[in-house]
Design goal:
This protein has 344 residues and is an alpha/beta fold. It is built from 13 helices and 12 strands. It binds ligand PBG.
Length: 344
């Protein structure tokens, strides 16, 4: 066979077995340049949403034992962190409060106070750093004396009354400058009701990020320490969060929120639920997000502190895997650290 034999003649003379035997999937993995060339997904700073914890007072910064490197901050310090985030190119922040126990009650009424720490944080950050997006949670749990996301009556989390409260909170949050309302309470009908409430008050431009599939999960533990609900919570949240055994039900939840007018969908927790992320992305083609929750953060930090894993690589790997699963972005406590790394 001379070297001018047409390629076609060569290949057609080979059997399927021969072709299969010569297939070398490692060819494109052989060097850094070729791996970069064929890399399918990438993590950029534009993928990051940074959840932060805010508290009353001034120049206050408290450690959270189970979340090394994460702090509760007073509003003035949160503004400074928002400035830092904007400089790093982080598109958006999500805020969560730890409010005084004295301000918590059965119905979470303090969520309706325009002067509560969340609403003050939104106004202050928007005034100082208007270019950063602010996401607020309209759930009641940091404001209730029992730590539940809804109003508790005779041992039951009452749905519709809770939705009314959540809608009122969302409208106040929008008045304070929130760009996206993210209701994490999983009450039925909340997305449509919030949409109606926002529209009726002139906030057609405020978006809704639905915690479409929020699972009852052990991975929220450190967050409950951060917002101070750990010691308060009576029972569990299984009557309103999804059973983590259920994938079809997760799809029905997301479909409902899409029909009610959600602009974005979120899956929470993140890593154990990559299958749900992929299904939602394929089914709805919506902007889809994952919340890499506190327990996921703490696991990586703890194993890393023990020298059991390379924390930095585990962080980057976990975040990139969210992209591969179909995420448009990730809520992660690692956001500023990743942004620094990506910049460097
Ligand atoms: C409750 C809420 C939770 C988180 C944010 N808002 C879960 C819970 O306490 O049940 C968890 C976030 C995290 O773990 O990082 N509305």
């Amino acid at each position: 066979m001379n070297k001018f034999t047409p390629a076609r003649a060569v290949t057609t003379s080979r059997s399927v077995d021969e072709i299969t035997a010569s297939r070398r999937l490692r060819r494109m993995r052989k060097a850094d340049w070729s791996r970069r060339l064929v890399q399918e997904n990438r993590l950029t700073v534009d993928d990051l949403i940074w959840p932060i914890f805010v508290i009353d007072g001034e120049n206050r910064r408290e450690e959270i034992a189970a979340m090394p490197g994460v702090y509760r901050m007073s509003v003035d310090l949160a503004v400074r962190e928002a400035e830092r985030a904007a400089k790093l190119g982080i598109p958006s922040l999500a805020t969560f409060p730890n409010v005084d126990l004295a301000l918590r009650d059965q119905t979470g009424s303090h969520i309706l106070d325009p002067e509560n720490v969340i609403n003050r944080a939104t106004r202050a950050i928007k005034a100082a750093v208007p270019e950063i997006g602010i996401i607020t949670d309209a759930a009641l749990d940091p404001f209730t004396s029992h730590g539940h996301d809804g109003i508790l009556r005779d041992g039951v989390i009452v749905n519709d009354e809770t939705v009314d409260q959540v809608v009122a909170a969302a409208v106040i949050q929008a008045q304070c400058g929130a760009d996206i309302i993210a209701p994490s309470d999983m009450m039925d009908g909340r997305v449509g009701a919030i949409r109606d409430g926002l529209d009726a008050n002139g906030f057609q431009g405020v978006a809704i990020m639905s915690y479409a599939t929020k699972f009852a999960s052990a991975f929220y533990g450190p967050y409950r320490e951060a917002v101070g609900t750990a010691g308060l919570l009576q029972g569990d949240k299984k009557t309103y969060y999804l059973d983590h055994a259920n994938g079809d039900e997760a799809l029905r939840e997301a479909e409902q929120d899409v029909l009610e007018g959600a602009d974005m969908l979120m899956v929470k927790p993140g890593l154990p639920y990559l299958d749900i992320i992929r299904q939602l992305k394929d089914a709805f083609s919506m902007p889809t997000f994952a919340y890499q929750v506190s327990g996921e953060y703490s696991m990586i930090m703890a194993a890393s502190a023990n020298g059991w894993i390379d924390g930095e690589r585990a962080m980057l790997e976990s975040l990139l895997c969210f992209k591969r699963a179909g995420c448009d972005g990730i809520l992660t406590y690692f956001a500023p650290r990743v942004a620094e790394m990506l910049k460097g």
